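Action item from last week, closing it out:
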Amino acid sequence: MNSSLEPQSDHQRHVGQRLRQVLDALPLPYVDAATAMGVSKQVLRNWMAGDSYPSPDALYRLKLAHCVSTDF
């Protein structure tokens, strides 16, 4: 195993932090971001906490709705 790779849980937290940064830069509440992504606020909260990975479809919907980069 390559020791330079992040463990999955660390990577999930990193992706969650990046998602939070993207959403914090938008002028809308998290509930509206969750709606744009087609998920509940709780699901979005879990993604930002690094409990699971965001759905590619949801990230794509966010990208289309708010013209943000989801390359993370």
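Closing note: Residues 8-24 form the longest helix (17 residues).
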